Amino acid sequence: MALLEVRDLSVVFGRKRQKPFTAVDGVSFSVAAGQTVGLVGESGCGKSVTSLAIMGLLPKRGVRVSGSVTFDGTELLTLSDKQLRDRRGRDLGMVFQDPLTSLNPVIPIGLQVTEVLRRHRGLDHKKAQAEATELLNKVGIPDPNRRLSEYPHQLSGGMRQRALIAIALACQPRLLIADEPTTALDVTIQAQILNLLKELVAGTDTALIMITHDLGVVAGLCDEVNVLYAGRVVERAARHELFADPRHPYTHGLLGSIPRLDSARSAKLAPITGSVADNIPWADGCAFAPRCPNALQGCVEQPPELETQDTRLLRCYNPVLPATTAAKEG
Amino acid sequence: MTVSSETTMETDQPASDDTLLRLEDLKVHFPIKRGIVLDRTVGYVYAVDGVDLRIARGETYGLVGESGCGKTTLGRGLLRLVEPTGGRAVFDGTDLSTLHGEQLRRIRRRMQMIFQDPLSSLDPRQSVESILVEGMRAHGLDNDRTATSARLRELLSAVGLPVTALRKYPHEFSGGQRQRIGIARSLAVEPDLIVADEPVSALDVSVQAQVINLLEELQTEFGLTYLVIAHDLAVVRHISDRIGVMYLGSIVEETDADTLYQEPLHPYTKALLSAIPVPDPVVEDQREQILLAGDLPSPSAPPSGCRFHTRCPWRQETRCDSERPELREIAPGHRVACHWAEDIAAGKIERHAVDVELVKETEAGPGAGLGGAASVTEMLST
Amino acid sequence: MTPKLLQRRRERIDELADAGDAGVSLAKDALRRMRANPVAITGAIIVALFVVLAILAPFLAPKDPRTQYAELKNQLTPESIPGPMPGFLLGSDQYGYDLFSRLLVGAQQTLIVGVLATLIGVAVGCTLGGLAGAFGGWVDTALMRFTDILLSFPSILLAISVAALFAETNQWTVIIAVSMVAIPVFARLLRGAMLAQRHSDHVLAATALGVRRRTVVFRHILPNALTPVIVQATLTLATSIIDAAALSFLGLGDPDPSRAEWGLMLAESQQFIEVKPELAFLPAAAIIIVALGFTLLGESLREALDPKKRR
Q: Which residues form the ABC transmembrane type-1 domain (chain C) (predicted)?
């Protein structure tokens, strides 16, 4: 059975007298123990809101969350604040994009780690201290004993992100959610952090949800990839399948618009036209239709459903032909 | 640094008459000041510390490096938007460091800039029309109303915006459209050189490609020369003819875009290339990664000798920590600042592990591996 | 491309064109958002009412506020002050003036003092701040140390000290004393905003474009740096009104009893508070409501002009 089961999750923002805005629109996916699942999409596609909804970190006022999120058989959306806090420390860990704002600036790193250990694992001061040193060591922070007494601003961006990962891992969570964990970092530091995450989940039962806009990050890390557009999953496939053969025009377009290090330089990029401002509401049809090169008449009459096609899920009436077929026809 | 040998090498080249921009040992050091009433200089941030490069007319030169390497400061220093501390920038035969006041202002028409953040680089109080006209007016290109209005239409259509955009304000556009406005603004004064500082990094992936393609089209259409500054090597490689890799204030390797990918010679370039994620699981699973240990050292206290030696997996016992390598031409058009480049290329030197403890951690030095736009200049100006 | 899609796209373009052929400038956008904000509307209504009342006060006042009416004076005893009676809406004050008319005219007095003090504060403060921001260097250091000294005094203490410097107090000493409090605030504010603007990308862009230095300052740096000044000026109107009232209350205001001024009215009615509490209560309420109006307006203006809150 899946460790985390997200069913039909919707998040609608909108205070009184404001036009409601649907950030997440019926997203379903599941994560098994030990699995790494990617949520990929551009800004505004609802990937971060999905993770916040799973963690129960969305504000209560002005936000409507519906659907179901079960973790190991327990429904998370109906848990009380206290129960949820308990879960968050113990079973669910989260790493955010900006390590500086996610760490408390006036409390030493060490205390921030031991706090979690003492609260959720009931360790005494001495044991927590030893465990914290061990954790910092594990995430590759050199000289962990000295670092424990330092404040977040004294660490570099990469080290801060490591510290944040150490806190998230403190209670050996069964699910780790990483929301753009490397976006604020330089590429060489990003490589360090990605490698660290890979090592930490490999061979353990810890599941990882990787949220990113960078398809490159996903390519090296995730077992399964969900591509989100305007709050809905438009394509889901295993990693190799998705990259070898993107079927949804959006996925296809995204891959086509990224300059690749290993591709011929003369090849012109094939960007997606327009911007998300061109989207139509899902109620009227496929949100991507106005930007889609494959759009049909039907695309703006009835929104497509997420359906199984071969071994993947696809939300499209006129998907890009599989690479093999296209080659034959060509 | 042996500047003279570098300079003679350049002037000896027969093709040097098509050089549009030449930097000779350009340095930008920012003083670090302390004190309440009287400021005392307690040290320097060596943001740009001796850069030589040459950009030919019509080519695209890519400058790549991580945050804190000084690439943004280099771009601003050569345009004299920040004052260089030493060295020269020669633009089309004119030494920019000798220009003052009105002369400098006049020559700015020919060298333009595109910024990273398309919103903050546009004055929120000006309509698109006045943003575009401003540069033309400053250089006396706005004499005839009908000609100006025709020119504005031409500019907008060149960057792919509707004419209705003219009377709107920057906040009414999407990120990609704003960047198009920024590009149109720089084109308005008919420049020869455009310095594009992270032109696409603030944009969504799907929009990035639109802007990259636009930059390429405009280059063909108007015969522009680009200096593209970015952290994303994949983007830089895609649009550049030649690439310089910067590390901590100086160029460590320079060659044409294809050679850089196929035969990187400097250890840092190798590490940088291997760190960039490729959106292809097959490649990702197979390739060997060179993970660098630790963070970028602080540019206010750069390591002695080769600046990369503290993190270099090919570091040798001799020379690396005592002697600063100069940029040597190893193959035609391929310059590398590494004492051991030939031996590394020939496989005579093995890669070894770097002890992280050895890496001198920066004590909250400016720009030390800070994410985002925290460049040295921004750190200092706040 | 299907016909329906094409039509959709065309509609969207039309929509875009309609939405603002003229474009929505920053000011227009701020105004639009203020209109949608109940706090701003409340503030604006209070301020508008106050301003209209103040300007029209001489015509609206049913009685002459400078005349001690015999029919009121006759009824004054140490134990009672006449309440409302025909012709005198709120009755008499402790001297036999018409309370209602004096309250109305007091609005005018308060408006004049508040506006003039703020204007002087903005003008002098912005000149100092502008010089410091434009020149930098030792000009900046000298001017800013001067403002630091002024800022180190508690504001009311500063106003009292300034007012006490004058041999005899009148309306103008109050205005000058109150404006002295505002000057360092505006000087620092404009200087800080100008420095921030000077390092902003769009100013750098203008410089890179080859725009003349003077044009950069007057077209880009100053207009953008004035935004926080406008907000602060609205808020300063509130504090100036309170400061002026406080000075009058402390006896450093205009001593002429025939002139109606809320602070003075409040001060002089203290001893009669048990006889007729409205004498103190009404001017106090007027001061609070007007100050609140300006504060609400200022705060909502700050919010509306904040670029981070836009979309």
A: 107-298
